[in-house]
Amino acid sequence: MTTGEGKRNRKKCLAYVAAFIVFQTAIIMVFALTVMKIKSPKVRFGAVSVDNFSSGDTNSSPSLSMRLITQFTVKNTNFGHFKYDNSTVTIFYGGMPVADALIPNGRARARQTKKLDITLDISSDRLSGTGNTNLANDINSGVLTLTSQAKLSGKVHLMKVIKKKKSGEMSCTIQINLFTRVGESKCK
């Protein structure tokens, strides 16, 4: 083997090593940009039903009491689990809170949806005088419009090494048909 052939073989070997390094870098970049991209979880209400509904009109002030039973979902689209802290979901009527419930801390597995059953006791006793003005009209029409808000804060754990703080927020409008006792939830 001559010195010219040895230099050519070394150059060829270096070219293969450089091509391998470029290829590995491209694979790592694709992996980092797709799999390792950590997203916020999606928090939503599922089916809504009404239980123990009662309404009345005392001293020209309408009253309302009901139990709202709903399914609360935490959809984790990440490749690692999402561990979240205690939180609350609040229901509003006319911009004023009428009910709230605790969301216990928990864990949504990787690429899965965790479902929780939440029960909220709604009472018009928490409304001030301005909130009661439209309540009688809504009760008589048979459709009650509520809004809900919740924020779930926690950490996404990837491969037990990478931990990133993320939070999922929910803002929903709930239309409850008082005749059928069924609600429809539309979330942003």
Automatic annotation (TrEMBL):
Keyword Membrane: yes
Source organism (scientific name): Davidia involucrata
Matching InterPro entries: Lea14-like_2 (IPR055301), LEA_2 (IPR004864)
Protein name as catalogued: Late embryogenesis abundant protein LEA-2 subgroup domain-containing protein
Gene3D superfamilies attached to this UniProt entry: 2.60.40.1820
Domain Late embryogenesis abundant protein LEA-2 subgroup, residue spans: 72-173
Cross-referenced Pfam families: LEA_2
Keywords: Membrane, Transmembrane, Transmembrane helix
